[in-house]
Specification:
With about 600 residues, the protein is of the alpha/beta class. The chain has 3 domains: about 190 residues, TIM Barrel, CATH 3.20.20.450; about 130 residues, CBS-domain; about 170 residues, Alpha-Beta Plaits (2-Layer Sandwich), CATH 3.30.70.270. It is built from 23 helices and 21 strands.
Length: about 600
C-alpha cells in the first residue's frame, strides 16, 4: 500500500517506531558523544576582527533535547548536570577549529560545576589533555553562568586562582540581568564581563540604557575588566555600543552560531564598524534629583557597640537576615563596619566560637571603613569610584552627619548614583522642545572631533522673530519655535544627524548625512512655507507686521523666515567644540545679513 506523506497510517507507523526506540536521556548522549558544539564569533568592535568564539552546545538534530534549555532541564531531572557541563566542555574543545588558534574560546560552566570539577581534578584533567592535543589552556575563557547559585564565593575565588595558574581566564555572564552580583565581580575580578542583552536591545531608543552602559563602563575601568556586549542584533545597536567604548560585541548581527567557527564578521556589521560616522545617542530630559546628596540613600540600620562579643553579633545577624552589614558605633561616632559575609566566613571556621566567641566584634571588623558625609554630592562620588580602596563595593559604607553615624549605603546604590551622574552630564534638554541643550551639543561635537570624522555644523536662527514674539505674544512665539524644531526633525536623519536647541530661536544641527546641503535647502523651504500659517490674514496680505525694533522704534518687519549658517568640518580643522560653534555662528550671521537663507563657509 502506498502511503501519502500526510497519511494517518504513516503517522501511526512513525509513532510505533519511535516508541520502540530506547528513550533519549542525557547519560546516553554523553556516552555516545552525541552533543554538538556550535561557535558564535566574538568581535572586536574597534576594527571588526573576530578575536574569540563562544561554544554553544546543541543536542542531536531533530531530537527533543536539541535545544540547550531542554537538554539541561533533562540533565537536572537525571542528576547529571555537572557531567553534562564537563561533556559540553570536552565537545567544545574537540570541535575547536585549528584555524581559530589566534582566537580564544569562551566555554560556559556554572559556579557549582567549577567547584565540583576542580575538587575532583576532572576540570584540570580535561583542560590539560586538550591543551596537549590542540587547544592551549591560555586560549580558554571560562564563562561563569548562574551567578545566583554561588553559595561559597571564597571557594570559587580559590578555584579560579588555581585555574589561572594554568593560564585560564574568566568571564562573568549576563551582568545586569537582576541576578548578577557586583560583589562577585569585585572579588573574582574576571578578565571579561558580558553585559546582559537587555541593556543592548534597542539601546539606540532608550537613553537610560545608554546611561547604564556608561555606568558599567566606569566600573570596568576601575576593575581593569574588558566589557563584552551581548545580543547585538541591529546596525543601530552596534554603532551605539561601539561609540560608548565597549570593546567587544556578540550577537546575530555580527555572526550566528555555527559548527564551523566563522573567522570574519558578517558584511553588514563590517560595514557599520568600518564607517567613521558616530551614532547619535538618545537624550534624556533633566533628572528630577539634580540636588542629590548621598544622605538621600542612607539606610537607617541599627548599630552595634564595638564592645559586644562576636557571639552577640552573630545573634543579631541571625535575627535580621536582611542585614548585609552593621556599623560599630561608640558614643555616636562610627569606629568600624562589620560585613555579614566576612563575619560569617570567620565565624564558621572550626573552633572560632570557642576561641573568639566572647571577644569584641571589632576583632574582624573593618576599622577604616569608607565614611561619606550626608552632603557628599554625586560629583564627589566619582572620586570615590576611582579610589584605590574598593572594599566599599562589597562591604558597603557608612554615611555620617557632622561626623556622627547616620546610616549605611551599599555598592549597588553607588552604582545607581554614578549612573545618575552620567545622566546629569548628558542632560539639559530644552523644556520647550525637549531637544538637547548646550551641554549635550558640546559633548556631541567633541565626540565628532575625537572620532576625526567629517561632519557639517549648522547654526539655525529665525529672522525677525523678536518682533513676531512681541506682536503675537509668547504663546504664539513658542509655537513658532516648536515649528522649527519639528521641521528640523523631519528633514534630518536622526540616526546620523544631531539636533540641539541652544535656546530661544537658536538651533544647532550636526550633519553626518552626505546630502546635508539638500536637507538644509528643503528645511528652509518647508519652514518658510509653514511659518505663514502662524500669521493673521492682515499680516499675510501686507507681507509683514508693525512692531517695535530693539530701540523702541515702531517699524515694519517682514514675515519670519529661517537662516542657516553651515560649516563643513574636516578632521583636525578645529581643536574644540567652542571653535566649531563659533564658526557656525559666524556663518549664520552671514546668512542673516545676506538675506540668502543659507550661507556655507569653508
Amino acid at each position: 500500500m502506498k502511503l501519502s506523506i500526510d497519511s494517518p497510517a504513516l503517522a501511526a507507523r512513525r509513532q510505533s517506531i519511535q516508541s520502540a526506540l530506547p528513550p533519549i536521556n542525557v547519560r546516553r548522549l554523553i556516552r555516545s558523544r552525541a552533543l554538538q558544539a556550535h561557535f558564535q564569533p566574538i568581535v572586536q568592535l574597534r576594527d571588526g576582527k573576530v578575536v574569540a568564539h563562544e561554544s554553544l552546545i546543541r543536542g542531536p538534530e531533530g531530537s527533543a533535547l536539541r535545544a540547550p534549555d531542554a537538554l539541561f532541564a533533562a540533565a537536572r531531572s537525571e542528576g547529571v548536570v555537572t557531567a553534562l557541563e564537563e561533556a559540553c566542555l570536552q565537545e567544545a574543545l574537540r570541535g575547536w577549529d585549528q584555524r581559530g588558534r589566534e582566537c580564544c574560546l569562551f566555554v560556559n560552566l556554572s559556579a557549582e560545576a567549577i567547584l565540583k570539577s576542580t575538587s575532583t581534578g576532572s576540570l584540570e584533567g580535561i583542560l590539560g589533555v586538550q591543551s596537549a592535543l590542540s587547544v592551549p589552556s591560555t586560549a580558554v575563557v571560562i564563562e561563569i553562568t548562574e551567578h545566583e547559585r554561588v553559595s561559597d564565593l571564597a571557594a570559587l575565588v580559590g578555584a579560579s586562582k588555581a585555574l589561572r595558574g594554568l593560564g585560564i581566564r574568566f568571564a562573568l555572564d549576563d551582568f545586569g540581568d537582576g541576578r548578577s552580583s557586583l560583589r562577585l565581580w569585585a572579588e573574582l575580578l574576571p578578565e571579561f564581563v558580558k553585559i546582559d542583552k537587555y541593556f543592548v536591545r534597542d539601546v539606540d531608543q532608550h537613553a537610560f540604557k545608554v546611561q547604564t552602559l556608561n555606568g558599567i563602563t566606569r566600573f570596568a575601568e576601575t576593575f581593569g575588566t574588558t566589557l563584552l556586549a551581548e545580543g547585538i542584533e541591529t546596525d543601530a545597536e552596534l554603532r551605539i555600543v561601539r561609540d560608548l567604548g565597549i570593546k567587544l560585541g556578540q550577537g546575530y548581527f555580527l555572526g550566528r552560531p555555527q559548527q564551523e567557527p566563522a573567522l570574519t564578521v558578517l558584511p553588514a556589521a563590517a560595514s557599520a564598524i568600518a564607517s567613521s560616522q558616530i551614532a547619535v545617542l538618545p537624550e534624556m530630559t533633566r533628572a528630577a534629583n539634580a540636588g542629590f546628596v548621598v544622605g538621600n540613600i542612607a539606610m537607617r540600620v541599627r548599630t552595634l557597640d564595638p564592645r559586644i562579643s562576636n557571639d552577640a553579633a552573630a545573634e543579631v545577624f541571625a535575627a535580621n537576615p536582611a542585614l548585609r552589614a552593621l556599623a560599630l558605633v561608640d558614643g555616636g561616632l562610627p569606629v568600624g563596619l562589620l560585613n555579614r559575609q566576612v563575619f560569617h566566613d570567620r565565624y564558621a571556621r572550626p573552633y572560632f566560637k570557642e576561641l573568639h566567641g566572647r571577644k569584641s566584634c571589632m576583632l574582624y571588623a573593618n576599622s577604616t571603613p569608607l565614611l561619606l558625609d550626608e552632603n557628599t554630592s554625586v560629583d564627589e562620588l566619582m572620586v570615590v569610584l576611582t579610589s584605590s580602596d574598593q572594599r566599599y563595593l562589597s562591604e558597603g559604607f557608612i554615611i555620617t552627619a557632622a561626623g556622627r553615624y547616620l546610616g549605611l549605603g551599599t555598592g549597588e546604590q553607588l552604582v545607581r548614583a554614578v549612573t545618575e551622574v552620567r545622566m546629569e552630564a548628558a542632560r539639559h534638554a530644552n523644556p520647550l522642545t525637549f531637544l538637547p541643550g548646550n551641554i549635550p551639543i558640546s559633548e556631541h561635537i567633541t565626540r565628532l572631533l575625537n572620532a576625526r570624522t567629517e561632519f557639517v555644523a549648522c547654526y539655525c536662527d529665525l529672522n525677525d522673530f523678536k518682533p513676531y514674539n512681541d506682536h503675537y505674544g509668547y504663546w504664539r512665539g513658542d509655537a513658532m519655535i516648536r515649528l522649527l524644531a519639528s521641521t528640523l526633525a523631519g528633514r534630518c536623519d536622526q540616526r546620523r544627524d544631531f539636533i540641539g536647541h541652544v535656546g530661544g530661536d537658536d538651533f544647532v544641527v550636526l550633519f553626518q548625512s552626505q546630502d546635508w546641503l539638500e536637507r538644509c535647502e528643503q528645511t528652509l523651504t518647508d519652514f518658510n512655507a509653514a511659518a505663514r500659517s502662524l500669521f493673521d490674514e492682515v499680516a499675510l496680505a501686507r507681507g509683514g507686521i508693525e512692531a517695535e525694533d530693539r530701540h523702541g522704534v515702531n517699524r515694519f518687519f517682514p514675515l519670519t523666515t529661517l537662516s542657516i549658517g553651515a560649516v563643513p568640518v574636516r578632521p583636525d580643522q578645529f581643536q574644540n567644540a567652542e571653535d566649531v560653534a563659533s564658526a557656525a555662528a559666524s556663518a549664520k550671521h552671514k546668512a542673516k545679513v545676506s538675506k540668502l537663507g543659507l550661507a556655507v563657509e569653508g
